[in-house]
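Page 42, continued from yesterday. The earlier attempt failed because a stray header line got pasted into the input along with the sequence. Redoing it now with the clean sequence only.
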Amino acid sequence: SHSNFSFFLLGAKWFQPHNVSVSPTIALTALPFSPTDKNPDEDTSPKPTIFLPSLAERKLHNTGTYLCLLENFFPDVIKIDWKEKNGKAILESHQGNTMKTNDTYMKYTWLTVMEQSMDKEHKCIIKHEKNKGGVDQEIIFLSMNEDETNQWPFVDPLQLQRASTSAYYTYVLLLAKSGVYSILIAYCLLGRGVLCSHGKSS
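This time it went through. Structure tokens are written below.
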């Protein structure tokens, strides 16, 4: 049954057997492919999860890192910028690779804020074709110098500390993972180069 497949027409060619007087025929080449299962009405916009700077990072390094994890979006084309809440300039930030998870994609991005900017609010701007209403998502990150108990009035301070510490280690883990991937890719590319050079010399 071909109910779950469609076909691509790859090419057509006229041909006629030698020494035979027959009408020319057409040879067609087709390959099956599996169509996408995405429902056009399904919400495949990026779903953000945010992680706040840890107290440990702020005390040890006088910096704070905002981390935003974007999940369950499709297609994979996405653009992310960071700005101060009321600013226009795009800030220098970092992004991990876009990774496929089942039939959707995920990506993480982070912004490290220096001590002199900790009193400012920041925002992460997400551009994706499936955003609701075609409007960019803007995720606001509160100032690090504001009283945390005022920012999170319903969160126990100890629970908040654990959450921010967890965010810090999550950030470190993701950063390390990205570094390992980069090393592996570089190793593979360099390895291919060495093999090619040996092949040419022989």
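Notes: The chain has three helices and ten strands.
Reminder to self: strip header lines before submitting.
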